């Protein structure tokens, strides 16, 4: 464009403390030191090339640790598979992981209400694992068939943190939250139709739960729930020590 | 006001077929014939004098049947108690009933989640009774303490229609609806705070319930639920005939 | 994915009481015993293969009863037609039915305001029939041409339950509800544009109806209305016995 | 306040063409010439003194024509009664009129659904009359008792413009609009509760009416409907000339 | 579908008074007698075949009058052009007209704020013409360049009814409404982005206009505005008679 | 009321496993066993008598543990002070505590953005303490004066769980969340005006935070945040053991 | 409260760089150095004592500069008048100013649409003056009477920054913004009713203005607009230098 | 269409003072004289032919000045490149510029939170440059990694106006606004998901910022922010003169 157009000016990639300028972004290369969490690339809104570039840069900076990419659409997943053959790319959770996983500490249990909530539950599970927790899952235990949940009730108390994923009216966290005192993060999903489309009903249901101590993340934000739950689990006292 | 102001022109109370003109309203005196339901006065937005006048007119037209008034504030209830000493006035449900109750047919069970939902549950119960059904109640069985609901589970299947009242996230109808096949009307209440204020969260939760066959009425509309449930109960086959 | 990724661990399909684990879901195989209703597969959010698999499993468990699938898109309907040639697949209501229909008990009348409301009305009709009721229909009787509704007025009182389907401003249930005392479920549809898009105007109109006893389901939820109405109809006293 | 504070500087009331500066406002004294309408004082948000001052100024400028004040609370009405004893002050419509009414031309029929809609209907009626139309009224003809409306159906076609006032679900304009081709303005009222509180349900219902040619004003805006309808009526061909 | 499926039962097209049953709809054939308006087919939500069929039926019933179809997508317009070669099909307004236009009576002036509002303005213009009014137009007179509007100010007072079409903030009706006393219908359009997407900002702006007497229709509802304005224009006194 | 009115029937207070029927409520007396949390009375929507009664019953059942009451208005606090002189009643957090506090385990740090957020922060702090955690606080560190937050930055990493309270745009959790990896619960408050009134802006800001791992509770829900954070803190590994 | 309750622990008022701890708040005493703006106390949500204390502290720290307090209710204004007799307290803008005003630099013109918008316009004017600009005002020039605005059109271009205040549909900024190229800040007010209540319609109108370069602040936020406009004015080139 | 259809009548392109009628639009050719701003073509909602035609006409009228087109989709950009080879067309900002750029006066600094906010930041930058300001940019300094922003803090105070672009929770303007007193315009972007989709969360966050003096434009409205900021910058005193 015009010579006076700043958007065309080449921006030098001068490395500075705590971030790397890769031309289209200033990658935060300092997160692990500040927070103990993994480096992460949010795929949404990025081109496949940008995703690959960011993964490559961050894993080169941190070859000893897993780097996670989330919300990868099909072209991005294909590009990662081609460019980074060692990456672990998953079509359900729409994630990619590059580098060695940390030793798991503590246990996060991911509980999902219905089949359609699966991708969000999977994103939460992968994220929690990459962030250092051990992960287990229970699926398809929606409140309309309470016997399915009660059959696995004993597993709730054995976890260090719970992630409960549900769409529609989002009632599952209220029921689970009444059965156990384990820290619980609720994830509303956008599964639903009519007034339930977009996940607003599930979100409001979880925010207004009558069960105490339930916290909530944004609609479909399995990633955020996974980070929070892993942070809890990895600093929890071992079971036999409690 | 001005002689040309139509709002001051006295409107003659000429009786016409199906309604009575009492000056400030054209009372629908024909409802029972059309629908089998009781005559009802909605107290909200009416002065105590208007409530008393409407009750008096309708009970004079239908001395053999109960006439119901709902949403009566304290002054209206006091005015009814003074003007119509035979009326049955209730401070919890904020209702008044004039005239003999019908013989109960079938059973409506009103289930409420919390103490604060009591007034709405009471309005539903009184309405269903006035509209011809027998009524029973179960209170304080919110989903955060599931054992309280499971302890009365057997009573659900014995009813001809269920009214389930809940505020907050409104999850109780989903759980009840998964336990029984009795026709169920859910009533969201305005109990809650923050994003739950006004009952929107409970309403959306009930509309998006994952349990099948749940129908919903407006927030705090115990009256509407009572009418619907009574219509179901009074035409249900007797238990021993089913 | 990673060996430590729980989403890849094969979950054994251990049968348990009340549900069947088919790998991607824990099918509720116990609904009929608990509620008397049919087993149902919600097609939305499922792949054609998942729909076929669920239908096959449930109809194998319940060969003597109809199994219903709803919200099937074109590929899912094609897959069902191919895999289950005995299935009754309908393009208007987007449903499939496998297995013998129950003997009809009582009558549900489905009333629709406009041509565009037809698919939702059809879903309600099929659902009510599968859930045990006889079904009749009246179409295109919107309130802007009141003479069309008044011409079929006598049919309203002959039903055991009414389902009234309307988009736009959703006024039809108010008018029908003022003409009869039969239990009435209103179904808002997403037909409309501008502020009416998505069905919110119709939903609010029905929730705030000035006619008593109207209950409402989610936008486009013909299925939910059909279940509720069938539950009413199949336990109603026969006409000659009332 | 501070000498440099502009809000304290006395602003000279220099008369200019088309408005009069009365210290707290620049009164539009030119409306009649531009639009043929009456001068109007919106009482909401004004002190009683400001209302009296504006009425006095405008009626002094236009002694030959009626000046209207709307949305007067009780203190404002009392102040007007004391200061302007010839004013016609009405407690239901919360209006005051000073000066001679115009000769009525054409007919506006104001139709109201329920008793509680009375104040808005009265404001519409007074406004239309002050703006030059003859006015008639029909009250309490809500759609839940259709026979009441059908009993006065013949009066609809005799008007030059219709104003239809309704709260709750706001269905009355749809039904009236299907019966006649007279220009119709719908006025939603804030009568309702739960999701109907504030008049949103009625507003959406009217905007999405399936009856053609219905136009809508803001919630409770009887004044705006009255101006529009009077403009139609006073330029309509006389009946015998049509 | 199943033999017991009511949606498959052939519904006989028994003609009845006031409507024609064409299989997929009960066409209101009586509108002209009741309201004086044209027969209209709303194309949205109908297949091309249904549009052609409805146009054919209504124009056969009313060969002496224009029949209007609106909101026709490209396939529907192509189908009408092929099946009804005498139809007047317009790509901007997305309408089709079959049959002779009425003699114009009175004048509707359609004023549009921007180029993008053109299709809605065109729908309003065609509708008003088909419904019996003469129509004139002024385009691209948005309030950000006030001189464009003031240059055509004299034309406002010469009309019998005004239709003012605007998207974005929808301010044009307020400015026009302050300049003239001609009855004015405002039409918000869905032109805009961010918080303006969908037309809500324009709709709210028009409903809350500080100019008196403005009435509003649904977003993009040029048709509704055209019907209302034509009803006003065709019963207006001729200019020389006023 | 009527003898057939169920709301008047005395309900016997038959003790059952897991709840106590005190006439107006079925108190959940089993929470500690199920969840390890304290028994709690939500004061909102209860009369002072009901609050006192519930506190008395629960503290009699659990004399060895603290019982908490929240959202107590002034009359309720006065009633508790009179009836239960040993209760610890606090006017800022609007809470009351009866019985001995547990030995604190781990540390919850409550961070508040502004003075007006104080009551919600206080409720969170009292709740966390009653639920078994040690509690510290930092106040008035809003993001518009970043130096105030950076001055206490070192205290963030020393906590086992963070509660970050903010109104207005709710940006504080994003900034805090970028500085530390400690599990963080964000609490939006209803402090604000215009579009910020009610706390919606703060809630949305927190749900959409670009900092990872932030979870959110309902507006003003200090109680919920306190329960969640205490559950984390009391099972966290001691610092020297990590 | 409890000895372990942190909310009761006396927090020492240790002065630190950039803020002063006054017990209930950490006052930002560094704003002038960072931003050049005045120190400000937001009165909303503070007790009269807190307002007086904050004003006293900040004016003691900055005796040479004006300190501003906004959104003072009547008790707060009375407390300030008593405690700080030199303060300039204004009832319309609900502000108080302590200390000498800065020399005005540049000119901010505050334009208001209606009488009811006066308090917000006054808050903007006082704020701009305290923040260093000269201030002028034009009132009551709403778009429904365009001649009032056009009469003062020449004053628009003479300002360095414009603040345009309007409620209802908020159209005034669009018209003003089309007449001049001076930087313009639009302030929506909460003046309105029905769908206009709360200022949402005005806010959306201003955000979607078709006039270029308009920026917007929160509803009723005269303070924010005043700060922004003063920042522009005080760095503007003098007129004769441009 | 019909000969009486006004939408087909050829409208003569009679030039008039201040606008040019090009058939499909009345181009405002007078903007520069009134406001000093560039002529602009909003590409959204226009065909490629309309964009080219408007650019051609305006640049012919103003050959000495740059003409800007915004929101050009790919076909429009291709059409401009073909028809106007001298145009400067940019794919990131989706803009085209025809004609010589003005000499830059003052400096606008555009600050963006994340990579995905780039296109909106680019539109703001190009617009500010075309409207006469010098422009600089800082990217990818979101609040979750505060060190990236603090590293460039000194550049904030060197600008005459700031444009701060952010999606998600939109917290960046609050943090920047607390660090500097330069006039700041915040631009929310539609980057986000769940409750953040569409930019509402970012918009509300910015409107409710606790940092003073922040003004806001519509979601994704980089153009509006660029015009406002350029107006500030080009009339700012030179640095050495301040």
Segments of chain A where pLDDT lies below 50 for 5+ residues? 1-16
Strand content of chain A: 15-25%
Q: What kind of oligomer do you see? A: homooctamer
- Helix and strand element order of chain A: EEHEHEHEEEHEHHEHEHEH
Count of distinct strands of chain A? 11
**Helix/strand/pairing category of chain A:** alpha/beta
| Whole-number mean pLDDT of chain A | 88
Radius of gyration of chain A: 20 Å
- Largest sheet report of chain A: 5 strands, parallel
What percent of the residues of chain A sit in helical stretches (DSSP H or I)? Answer: 25-40%
Give the overall form of chain A: globular
Terminal residue distance of chain A: 65 Å
> Largest protein interface?
A-F, 37 and 37 residues
Written description of the protein model:
8 copies of one chain form a homooctamer. By secondary structure, chain A is an alpha/beta fold. Chain A contains 9 helices and 11 strands. The first copy, chain A, has helices spanning about 30-35, 50-60, 75-85, 120-130, 145-150, 155, 170-180, 200-205, 220-235; strands at about 20, 25-30, 40, 65-70, 90, 95-100, 105-110, 135-140, 160-165, 185-190, 215. The first copy, chain A, has a 5-stranded parallel β-sheet with strand order 8-7-9-10-11, with helices on both faces. A 4-stranded mixed β-sheet of chain A has the order 3-4-6-5, sandwiched between helices. In chain A, strands 1-2 form a two-stranded antiparallel ribbon. In chain A, β1 (about 20) and β2 (about 25-30) form a beta hairpin. The longest helix of chain A is centred in the first third of the chain and has 14 residues, at about 50-60.
């Amino acid at each position: 464009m015009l010579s006076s157009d700043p958007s065309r000016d080449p921006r030098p990639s001068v490395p500075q403390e705590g971030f790397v300028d890769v031309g289209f972004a200033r990658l935060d290369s300092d997160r692990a030191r500040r927070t103990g969490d993994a480096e992460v690339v949010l795929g949404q809104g990025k081109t496949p090339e940008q995703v690959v570039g960011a993964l490559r840069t961050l894993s080169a900076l941190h070859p000893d640790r897993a780097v996670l990419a989330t919300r990868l659409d099909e072209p991005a997943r294909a590009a990662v598979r081609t460019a980074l053959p060692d990456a672990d790319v998953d079509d359900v959770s729409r994630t990619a992981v590059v580098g060695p996983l940390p030793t798991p500490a503590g246990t996060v249990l991911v509980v999902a209400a219905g089949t359609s909530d699966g991708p969000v539950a999977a994103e939460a599970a992968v994220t929690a694992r990459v962030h250092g927790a051990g992960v287990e899952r229970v699926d398809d235990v929606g409140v309309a068939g309470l016997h399915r949940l009660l059959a696995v009730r004993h597993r709730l108390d054995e976890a260090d943190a719970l992630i409960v994923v549900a769409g529609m009216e989002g009632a599952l966290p209220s029921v689970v939250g009444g059965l156990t005192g384990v820290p619980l993060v609720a994830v509303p999903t956008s599964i639903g139709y009519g007034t339930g489309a977009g996940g607003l009903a599930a979100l409001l249901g979880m925010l207004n739960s009558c069960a105490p101590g339930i916290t909530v993340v944004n609609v479909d934000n399995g990633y955020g729930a996974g980070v929070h739950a892993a942070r809890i689990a990895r600093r929890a006292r071992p079971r036999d020590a409690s």
